[in-house]
Amino acid sequence: MDYSVFLEWVGYLASVIIAVSMFMNSLVKFRVINLVGAALFSVYGFLIGSIPVGLMNGIIVVVDIYYLLDYFRKKEVFEVIEVDKGGSFLQKFLTFYRSDILKIFHVFDDTFSRCDVNFFVLRNMTVAGLFMATDIDNGVLRVELDYAIPEMRDFKSGKFMYTNLKPRFVEMGYTKLVAKKADQRHNKYLKSVGFSDADDEMMVYSLV
Q1: Residue 135, Ramachandran bin (φ over 0: left; ψ between -120 and 50: alpha; else beta)
Q2: Sign of torsion over alpha carbons 202, 111, 124, 206
Q3: Which residue among 6, 30, 89, 169 sits deepest, i.e. has the most Cβ atoms within 10 Å of its Cβ?
């Protein structure tokens, strides 16, 4: 391949990666993908002899690294708050995020209005997600909704929630949680917080 053509494709690839980063809801994903694109663009700039392009994108790389390090070093405060199933804020939250919930769980019905256990997850005093479950007897709690808002979708909130709610669930008499499989990313999330495959449709989390 001709060297000039190779450089041209490097520039195209860098542009595509940076464009993709703009579609990320998660700030962490945006920073990581943007960093890769900017690094590639910086190399491209220096290779074609354009010092301003190389330097500017090099600065973007440094900025992305700074904010990523700051994000992972920052000590965050998590909290769970139990809410009544008929609470107005709960209903407004569900209505606001309805379309996003449908993308993940492919269902949105009146089941959510009948859940026995409902918790908001707060992250630095900001609502990060919602946990809703139904008592199906014999010490089993079925998770109807375990949802994190797009900006907070990095698994941290979920790991905190399951770790801190586990003793409370045990006190309430539950021995395990079950959750219906959703999309691939959500299933990966469930496994990361301790769920395992029960069958083709369900996953299970042992509390004892």
Answers
A1: beta
A2: negative
A3: 169
- 2: number of Cβ within 10 Å: 7
Selection from 5, 40, 44, 3 nearest residue 19 by Cα: 40
One CATH from 3.30.470.20, 3.30.450.40, 3.30.450.20, 3.40.630.30 for 78-206 = 3.40.630.30
Torsion angle of C-alpha atoms 40, 46, 47, 49, degrees rounded to 10: 140
Residue identified by tokens 């606001």 is 96
One-letter amino acid at 146 equals: D
Residues 6+ apart with CB under 8 A from 158: 121, 129, 146, 148, 189, 192, 193
Question: What pTM does this model have?
Answer: 0.67
Q: Are 71 and 114 in contact (CB under 8 A)?
A: no
Q: How far apart are CA 203 and CA 129, in angstroms?
A: 20
Is residue 179 within 8 A of residue 205, CB to CB? The reply is: yes
- Over residues 155-181, the pLDDT tens digits come to 788 888 888 889 989 998 999 999 988
Q: Are strands 176-180 and 202-206 parallel, antiparallel or unpaired?
A: antiparallel
